[in-house]
């Protein structure tokens, strides 16, 4: 028994001698070699991780263990070179993990952006945002938060655990800038993916229109199917528009302010302004592009309705009936704008005014275009009743849509009214020349005075009669005494109504004498 115990003691002394026969430099060299091998294996493992494993605890736990190893070596007075190597490993692994998180953020954003449900979220789900977004921006938000929260923790730990013993200012600056650029580029990437959806929808619309042109005539079923497809396309464009507006107005500012301290510990308002201006510019340019696609699609619908209103409503403008009020065709055309108003109000309310102004200006331009296209055909003649009918209805449109009449739209309407007056005067002169009794033609002033009289007699009643149809546009202006004369600026002698003022809010032209007014502007 004693012999065996003595043998064990002899072995222990031999083993101790074996490991204590090395010099301090040799031990330090062995530790450095071990750390170096560990460094290589960890770096290769971190780089080889698939994206699906980035958020799993492997990398974060490994970095924690490296930090613990650093503390252990420091506490045992180990070789400074080995400790320095281990701290460098900790710093490099943290940086590598952060870069992998940045990469994961962008790669995952690309993956989720391939699939759009086109289903808008409820007001509660989107936190009462006025933008009726789909789930896509919120998925992007969750991806960004998942990555940035981990990055924030990694940088915090790196500052606390390594910066105490070593100067890592340069490494931190590199990490800060990498994170900042990854954050901004992630938003730019997402904006690009949203823009791709808009471009694909526009291309789909273009292909459908080309198919209709090639196929020619569409029967009733085809027309219904086409209208349904158009409505679905317009709603999808509005979803894209809402997602863009939400990112521009809410999400980018929210997340930037949440994480800017990561790369800018010292408050730098100039940097913030530059970054936010860059993001807003990216989304604004995209927003304008998709809004153009949306309004263009809606303008095609408006043009068809305007064509029916002006040319296919069953009225012959050279022998029009007595004016009794606005026609049903007027309301049919206006209902399209009412529908757009409701669609944009519920889907992208902050863009409502901009959208409606574009469409209202487009409506007047369409009127002008149709007039010039048909002035030698369906609109070859325009008698006094036809002129007064159109002037009343244009005044009705202008009054109802007044909130959305831009300066350009008013100028276009003025040009249209001038063209109608000129056409009515030409038609009256031709009728008088062909009349054996040589009855004098009606003067421009008489025509304008007659149109004003019809407006005074009928417009307010028509606004009251159709108040439910137009409530979304002008309910506040239907209050008693709120309506102003639609002919308040154009003054001209009127033989039959000497006290009257004849003008329109967009028909502003002073007349030097009682002769026929000069048509000064053409808009084709």
TrEMBL record:
UniProt KW keywords: Exocytosis, Protein transport, Transport
InterPro entries: EXOC2/Sec5, EXOC2/Sec5_N_dom
One GO CC term on file: exocyst
Domain Exocyst complex component EXOC2/Sec5 N-terminal residues, every copy: 10-473
Tree of life domain: Eukaryota
KW Protein transport (keyword) present: yes
Known partners and oligomeric status: Component of the exocyst complex.
Family: Belongs to the SEC5 family.
Function of the molecule: Component of the exocyst complex involved in the docking of exocytic vesicles with fusion sites on the plasma membrane.
Protein name: Exocyst complex component SEC5
């Amino acid at each position: 028994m004693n012999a065996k115990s003595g043998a064990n003691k002899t072995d222990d002394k031999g083993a101790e001698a074996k490991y204590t026969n090395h010099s301090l430099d040799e031990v330090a060299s062995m530790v450095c070699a071990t750390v170096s091998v560990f460094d290589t294996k960890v770096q290769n493992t971190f780089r080889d991780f698939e994206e699906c494993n980035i958020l799993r605890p492997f990398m974060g736990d490994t970095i924690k263990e490296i930090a613990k190893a650093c503390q252990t070596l420091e506490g045992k007075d180990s070789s400074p070179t080995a400790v320095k190597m281990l701290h460098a490993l900790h710093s490099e692994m943290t940086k590598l993990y952060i870069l992998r998180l940045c990469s994961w953020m962008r790669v995952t954003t690309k993956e989720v952006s391939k699939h759009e449900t086109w289903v808008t979220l409820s007001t509660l789900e989107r936190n009462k945002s006025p933008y009726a977004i789909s789930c896509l921006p919120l998925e992007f938000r969750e991806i960004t938060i998942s990555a940035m929260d981990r990055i924030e923790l990694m940088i915090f730990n790196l500052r606390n655990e390594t910066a105490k013993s070593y100067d890592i200012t340069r490494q931190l600056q590199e990490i800060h800038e990498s994170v900042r650029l990854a954050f901004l580029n992630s938003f730019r990437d997402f904006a690009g993916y949203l823009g791709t959806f808009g471009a694909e929808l526009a291309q789909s619309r273009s292909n459908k229109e080309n198919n209709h042109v090639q196929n020619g005539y569409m029967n009733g079923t085809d027309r219904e199917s086409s209208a349904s497809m158009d409505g679905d396309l317009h709603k999808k464009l509005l979803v894209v528009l809402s997602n863009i507006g939400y990112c521009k107005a809410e999400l980018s500012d929210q997340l930037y302010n949440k994480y800017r301290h990561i790369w800018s510990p010292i408050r730098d308002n100039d940097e913030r302004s530059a970054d936010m201006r860059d993001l807003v510019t990216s989304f604004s340019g995209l927003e304008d592009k998709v809004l153009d696609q949306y309004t263009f699609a809606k303008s095609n619908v408006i043009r068809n309705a305007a064509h029916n209103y002006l040319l296919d409503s069953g009225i012959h403008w050279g022998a029009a009936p007595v004016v009794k009020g606005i026609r049903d065709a007027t309301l049919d055309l206006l209902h399209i704008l009412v529908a757009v108003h409701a669609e944009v109000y519920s889907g992208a309310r902050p863009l409502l005014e901009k959208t409606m102004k574009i469409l209202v200006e487009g409506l007047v331009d369409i009127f002008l275009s149709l007039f010039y296209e048909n002035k030698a055909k369906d609109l070859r003649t325009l008698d006094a009743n036809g002129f007064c009918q159109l002037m009343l209805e244009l005044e009705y449109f202008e009054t109802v849509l007044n909130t959305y009449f831009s300066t350009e739209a008013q100028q276009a309407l003025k040009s249209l009214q001038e063209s109608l007056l000129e056409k009515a005067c030409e038609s009256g002169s031709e009728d008088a020349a062909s009349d054996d009794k040589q009855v004098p033609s009606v003067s421009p002033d008489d025509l304008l005075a007659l149109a004003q009289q019809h407006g005074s007699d009928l417009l307010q009643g028509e606004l009251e009669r159709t108040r439910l149809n137009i409530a979304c546009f002008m309910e506040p202006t239907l209050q008693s005494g709120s309506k102003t004369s639609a002919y308040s600026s154009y003054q001209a002698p009127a033989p039959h109504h000497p006290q009257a003022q004849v003008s329109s809010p967009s028909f502003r032209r002073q007349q030097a004498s009682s002769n026929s007014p000069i048509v000064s502007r053409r808009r084709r």
